[in-house]
Amino acid sequence: MLIVMRQDATAEQVAHVMETVREHGFDPKPVPGAERTAVCVLGNRGPVEAALFESLAGVSECIRVSKPYKLVSRDTHPKNTVVEVHGVSFGDGRGLGMIAGPCAVESRDQIFRVGEALAQRGVRLFRAGAFKPRTSPYAFQGLGEEGLALLDEVRRQFGVGLVTEAIDHENFDKVEAVVDIVQIGARNMQNFSLLRRAGKSSKPILLKRGMSATIEELLMAAEYIVSGGNSQVILCERGVRTFADHTRNTLDLSSIPVVKQVSHLPIIADPSHAAGKWDFVIPLSMGAVGVGADGLIVEVHPEPEKALSDGAQSLTLKNFDELLRRLQG
Ligand code: PEP
Ligand code: MN
């Protein structure tokens, strides 16, 4: 339930409503708005009786929220959430937030080369995995803490912000200490204890859609983070599994306008993991922008043929230039 306060409600009246919600054994969460404040009632197992709150001073109306996610729903927060990181804005409806970099940190030489080249091209958010969630235990698992230290050096050298994935509790703390955005990958979208940890983080979270997750499941995963206290969540459509095998995954373009209709959170697209092949990354990027994506996360490698992971889907620097040209045109 959402208790909407009157425009002229005082801070004391809001506090009294919150206290009353608590007295009934629920968890009140204030949702400040541009015009008026609302109080979201969480922790209820069934429907909440509106009459409990309707007559309290300063209350305008009580709205039943029947969806299984509340705080990330537009019902409770009609305006877009804008996540600002390192001078890049996601969700303001104007520019496109760009995140680019290689799949993984592989070596000092590789990460410095691509970090410098992307910074020169105006990229302000640099991605690269230090801890890699690989399908095969024999595949390159990332450089771990050494990779994080290299990323930190790249940040200091070229002034870029960092986006990297935390794959478990243990490395969440380490990743959080270094990066500007903590990524939770597709394989961990429903790792609920990791989502709760992300909810306690002071850093924005990039939450990728699981490869077989519905939009509702994605939004419930985001609800874990937001209800834990972290409202800085960027969603990411990275393709889902379908019968089609001409691409690695099927980029579900329709998820972008659907998410924007039902949620106020920004959503970006990852055309690289969707396509699996570099030559489709530019057309899928254009498609994602066309349907309203708030940004892109793109894999770029100085020598894709030598990449230790996801080389086939990585753009060369020349191809990344072409993407930037197309986006400007
Ligand atoms: C990645 O971004 O490197 C990654 C592993 O992506 P996903 O979780 O979408 O597969
Ligand atoms: Mn990758």
Report the C-alpha radius of gyration, rounded: 21 Å
Poorly predicted ranges: none
Write down the overall geometry. elongated
Write out the strand line-up for the largest beta sheet, numbering strands in chain order: 13-12-11-10-9-8-7-14
Question: How would you summarize what this structure contains?
Answer:
The chain has 329 residues and is an alpha/beta fold.
Report on the architecture of this protein.
The N and C termini lie far apart (45 Å). This protein has helices at 11-23, 51-54, 108-120, 145-158, 169-178, 192-199, 215-227, 255-262, 271-275, 281-290, 317-328, and strands at residues 2-5, 27-31, 38-42, 59-63, 83-85, 88-90, 97-101, 125-127, 161-165, 181-184, 205-208, 233-237, 267-269, 295-299. Helix 3 (108-120) links the parallel strand 7 and strand 8. The longest helix has 14 residues, at 145-158. The radius of gyration is 21 Å and the shape is elongated. It has eleven helices and 14 strands. 33% of the residues lie in helices and 18% in strands. It is of the alpha/beta class. An eight-stranded parallel β-sheet has the order 13-12-11-10-9-8-7-14. The chain folds into two domains: 2-63, 2-Layer Sandwich (Alpha-Beta Plaits); 83-328, TIM Barrel. The structure holds phosphoenolpyruvate and manganese (II) ion.
